Design the sequence.
């Protein structure tokens, strides 16, 4: 595997930190996943794990009345989120924190809902499910998106791209097996629609890449990095039928006998 250019990561972060969100997703998909979380308390305690700059954090603030702890290990993203929280007047409801996804500095069994869009793979999906289970109260929900294969024999360029970013990426059936082994109950799952890739992610990415091409017009090395980054949306345009993001909603079993209502007193 070729090592990235020394310029790759600085330009990568310059691009990604300026985007509305750092991966596929949209408001409609968030609302659809929340609809699978029946019986949440009126004011749920929510953890947004691997929140990035927090685009989906604000969806959660809009779609629920909950208090939200938003955790990411990339300090510049958290600083941007803090500024946006202050600007929107949400400081009493949203608390951004720099932290390790694998060992977030929050109490165990303290959340009604753990939310994570496109981030759990960073610590290994099987490990992440166990981490999230321990953060949930009995009867609490975990809602997360995960990249999965959907067709055999992807083109070599697609396979090479995922080998670099996510070499252990599996299939929906693999994630379902991990969910079962983690002792979590599946409430439902669905594939993100194509607009969830383009509206708030790839379209702004392409626009920002063009802006950066102007900034680095005389810098051949930077332009080469931008060409490399621009391949991602183009690969998706050509080969989206080979892979997807799947939204999973699961629940930690109640400790009581029979059903329990999370919102009960």
Sequence:
């Amino acid at each position: 595997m070729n090592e990235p250019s020394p310029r790759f990561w600085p330009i990568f972060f310059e691009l990604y930190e300026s985007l509305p969100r750092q991966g596929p997703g949209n408001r409609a998909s968030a609302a659809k996943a929340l609809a699978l979380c029946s019986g949440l308390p009126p004011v749920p305690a929510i953890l947004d794990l691997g929140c990035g700059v927090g685009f989906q954090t604000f969806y959660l603030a809009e779609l629920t009345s909950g208090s939200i702890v938003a955790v990411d290990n990339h300090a510049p993203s958290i600083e941007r989120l803090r500024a946006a929280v202050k600007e929107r007047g949400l400081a009493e409801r949203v608390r951004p924190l720099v932290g390790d996804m694998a060992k977030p500095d929050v109490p165990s069994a303290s959340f009604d809902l753990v939310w994570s869009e496109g981030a759990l793979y960073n610590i290994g999906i099987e490990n992440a499910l166990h981490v999230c289970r321990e953060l949930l109260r009995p009867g609490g929900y975990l809602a997360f998106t995960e990249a999965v294969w959907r067709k055999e024999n992807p083109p070599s360029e697609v396979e090479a791209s995922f080998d670099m970013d996510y070499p252990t990426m599996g299939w929906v059936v693999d994630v379902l097996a991990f969910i079962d082994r983690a002792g979590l109950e599946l409430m439902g799952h669905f594939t993100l629609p194509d607009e969830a890739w383009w509206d708030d992610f790839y379209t702004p990415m392409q626009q920002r890449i063009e802006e950066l091409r102007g900034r680095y017009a005389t810098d051949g090395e930077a332009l080469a990095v931008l060409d490399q980054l621009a391949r991602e949306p183009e690969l998706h345009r050509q080969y989206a039928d080979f892979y997807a993001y799947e939204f999973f909603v699961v629940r930690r079993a109640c400790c009581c006998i029979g059903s329990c209502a999370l919102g009960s007193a």
